[in-house]
Amino acid sequence: xxxxxxxxxxxxxxxxxxxxxxxxTARGDSVQFDTLSVRLxxxxxxxxxxxxxxxxxxRGTSARRVTLRWLRFSGSVGTSGPDAPPIVFLAGGPxxxxxxxxxxxxxxxxxxxxxxxDLIAFDQRATGTSIPLLVCAPSxxxxxxxxxxxxxRDSLSLSAAHTCLAQLQxxxxxxxxxxxxxxxxxxxxxxxxxxxxxxxxxxxSYGTHLGLAxxxxxxxxxxxxxxxxxxxxxxxxxxxxxxxxxxxxISQVASRDPRFAxxxxxxxxxxxxxxxxxxxxxxxxxxxxxIRLDAFDLQRFVTDALGExxxxxxxxxxxxxxxxxxxxxxxxxxxxxxxxxxxxxMNLLVNCASGASAARWAAIDADxxxxxxxxxxxxxxNVQCRTDELRSARAAGSTRSKAVPVPxxxxxxxxxxxxxxxxxxxxxxxxxxxRHLVVPFxxxxxxxxxxxxxxSLRFLRGDHVAGARLIRTxxxxxx
Length: 479
Fold this sequence. Notes:
Blueprint: E1 5-6, E2 23-24, E3 30-40, E4 43-55, E5 65-73, E6 87-90, H1 98-103, H2 107-116, E7 119-123, E8 135-136, H3 150-170, H4 180-194, E9 199-205, H5 206-217, E10 222-230, H6 240-255, H7 266-280, E11 283-286, E12 289-292, H8 295-305, H9 309-312, H10 315-323, H11 331-338, E13 343-344, H12 345-354, H13 358-368, H14 381-384, E14 408-413, H15 421-427, E15 434-439, H16 450-460, E16 468-469
Parallel strand pairs: 6-7, 6-9, 9-10, 10-14, 14-15, 15-16
Antiparallel strand pairs: 1-8, 2-3, 3-4, 4-5, 5-7, 8-13, 11-12
Helix pairs in contact: 2-16, 4-5, 7-8, 7-10, 8-11
């Protein structure tokens, strides 16, 4: 621990002791390669590991460097040509690790990707096996039975961010080095280090935000891209009205389900629960703990559930159960929001650096006044990133994109409140060769959907994939 900063992972010296000799790239970065066996769901597989040292902040004056790592898996023999560009997998978050995601990736999805070419699982700076990892020490836990006002929640989140920033400064971290712009240059440094003229991109969630920025900066170095759950240049912070619209659609579909015949509409149930919790802040007992609940816990419970189809299909039953008195279902959410947890500084810094345009903040603020789910999905980053310490200084028009001549397959789920269909609709005009595949009733975690996997493979191999809205039946809701 350095100044309260938890720096995880192997140290710099261990990165120098094995593998090929260090080489200097055309960019002046240092790179080393070694071979190792990696355990995946499908079993052991040999990969080439790349280790790259780049400046922490390329526009800064410090000589401080960070270490980036990736794993490169060879494509299936005989299925992709020798000149096929490698596919770089860009994980989400920001803060998720590409190598970790690959290790847990469904076998069928990984096999499909390797048919299209070599696959590179890239650990973006301050993620996974890259060095350093920026994780600030936990702040104090909040007593589970304490009544919390919104002002108190804001104050606690701001205090945690302020303390974390002080820890970063004490450790010598250059905060400006942790941004999507720096990660774009990291990706270009990776391409140069492996000596290929172009790469294909395969990303989800924040990985699409990074991929879009890379294509804007280096369109001639991008062969093609598949982006699922798309976060555009000005989509880091979500529009509450769009999240509410997804919740309303789920509620409408649930109203046609025989399981809920004769029940009050789900939105009415939610509204009643929110009013009740705001007025009474009841205490529930779980084991030996007494936990106080409020309306924000309910809003966060719902926005968390909207992340995946498997949690969406249980949401109506859970809300009806709460209306019948089973408020203890909210206890895990309330406890998690009050727990002492390390703060992922990489996530905070990158999100705040992306920020939002003035027009976007104005639209968000207008939405919040009437939104059922409030700002629960983005909290606390939406509060922390609007302080003077972390506010992004975005020039007027900085979110406007120039035309990008890269073939891109965009994929959206109609039940995705985090990265809704509208995000892609606002981007398509910028992409001359863009296609949009819309998957009804899918949410944010849709990369493993069989139709999505098949379309992604065909597109990455250069086959024509038309933009379309798939035909799907609504999933069955369950307890």
